[in-house]
Amino acid sequence: MTVGDLLYSDTEEALRDSVRHLFADRCPPEAVLRAYDPVPPDFSGVWRTLAAELGVAGLLVPESFGGAGAGAREAAVVMEEVGRAVAPVPFLSSAVLATVALLAAGDTETVPALAQGELTAALVVPLSAAPGDPVAGVSAAGGGLSGEVSSVAGAGEADVLVVPVAGPDGAELHSVSRTAAGVDVSPVLALDMTRPLANVRFSGAASTRLGPADNAVAEALQTGAALLASEQLGVAQWCFDTTLAYVKQRKQFGRAIGSYQSIKHRLADLWFEVGAATAVARHAADACARSDATPKDAATATAVAQAYCSDIAVHAAEECVQMHGGIGMTWEYPAHLYLKRAKSDQLAFGTAYRQRARLSRLVDLPPS
After folding, report:
1. Which of 31, 125, 229, 252 could pair with 309 in a Cys bridge, judged by C-beta atoms 3.0 to 4.6 Å apart?
2. DSSP structure string for 104-123
3. Sorting pLDDT into bands at 50, 70 and 90, what band is 2?
4. Would you state the pLDDT for residue 319?
5. CA end-to-end span of the chain, whole Å?
6. Angle between helix 352-362 and 295-323 (nearest 10)
7. Which residues pair with residue 123 across a beta bridge?
């Protein structure tokens, strides 16, 4: 496979600027902090603006279905800004996971509404599910859906649930309204409340069969894992930039703390790590977007990106908290938001260990 230009194009830069300005205006850190209030604010207006006015909900949707006809590169730009702002919006759960699964299953009814921002959807699989994992924990016995799936991202605010179902002839993909009879969505108290999780239980819920599920779910999880690396990159970039600015102006004993050699070395290491994360995250998105890339190329690039970026995001967030000293430990300062998102993302779509094991199989490296 020929590697494309990993630098952002003018169009991608314009998209990034639009999303960043929107988050700065409508989703600043002091607003995101309130996601942990007993009664969190409603961020649906931010999503409606993103989805309808900026058109990001339809980036992965073909123009024939009312989407933008873009690809994984453009979606990665949005994911990077979502990570930079730890924005509580359902881009990953609705515009990526559910949309890709529906498109792969041949849906023509729900996808256009998702692309226009009229509906949101959630793929009913655990957020920890890795590409290739069996995920059909729901059955269609008795004429309705029955079963339970835990820790589903975006289920609480979704209009439509996209459900892998164990059918008589193999896994099937079904759709069901979140408010339908026999559907119970219970919020879960999670480490990262800016990406709400929920347990979903079905008790004889009526549904619509869409098509075979195995390839659709595998493609959705593969795309989600590839793009999650860009979100982890956004988290790491914010942590590095914010920490660098802080150590330049924070003084102790009459000197900026950034002038001390130990701080310089830690920041230099972090700068290198974030730069490397930039390369592997953008390569994963590029491999998913390129028509000349094979499925193995995309899977390999994704495994590399996830194995590396998930740990770098956590390291950057930890360094951010520590180098800010006392203020970094406070609830009012947003550093903990990034640490929580980084730790949550570290477990999503398979841990770094599982990604490295998957990578070894993809490149025919025998286990030791």
Report:
1. 229
2. HTT--SHHHHHHTTS--EEE
3. low
4. 97
5. 28
6. 150
7. 162
Concatenate the DSSP letters of all residues of 19-46 into one string: HHHHHHHHS-HHHHGGGGSSS----HHH
Using a pLDDT cut of 70, give the percent of the chain over it: 98
CATH of the domain spanning 216-362, picked from 1.20.140.10, 3.90.180.10, 3.20.20.70, 1.10.357.140: 1.20.140.10
State how far the Cα of 190 lies from the Cα of 186, in Å rounded to an integer: 12
Kindly tell me if the per-residue pLDDT of 310 is higher than 70. Answer: yes
Whether the CB-CB separation of 308 and 225 falls below 8 Å is answered with: no
Q: Which residue from 131, 99, 288, 118 is spatially nearest to 210, judged by alpha carbons?
A: 99
d(CA 299, CA 75): 17
- Least Cα distance to 246 among 320, 326, 314, 315 occurs for 320
The confidence score (pLDDT) of residue 8 equals: 87
Q: How far is CA 177 from the centre of its chain?
A: 23
Question: What residues does 170 pair with on adjacent strands?
Answer: 167
Query: Is the separation of the CB atoms in 145 and 182 below 8 Å?
Result: yes
Q: Distance between CA atoms of 269 and 25, rounded to whole angstroms?
A: 32
Q: Encode pLDDT of 278-301 as tens digits.
A: 999 999 999 999 877 788 999 999
CB atoms within 10 A of CB 260: 14
Do the beta carbons of residue 60 and residue 98 sit within 8 Å? Answer: no
Q: Where are the domains of the chain?
A: 10-120, 123-212, 216-362
pLDDT score for 1: 52
At 3, is the pLDDT very low, low, confident or very high (cuts 50, 70, 90)?
A: low
Q: What is the pLDDT of residue 218?
A: 94
**Topology of the domain covering 10-120:** Butyryl-Coa Dehydrogenase, subunit A; domain 1 (1.10.540)
Please state which architecture CATH assigns to domain 123-212. Answer: Beta Barrel (2.40)
Environment class of 220 (CB within 10 Å of its CB; exposed 0-12, middle 13-18, buried 19+): buried
Mean pLDDT across the chain: 93
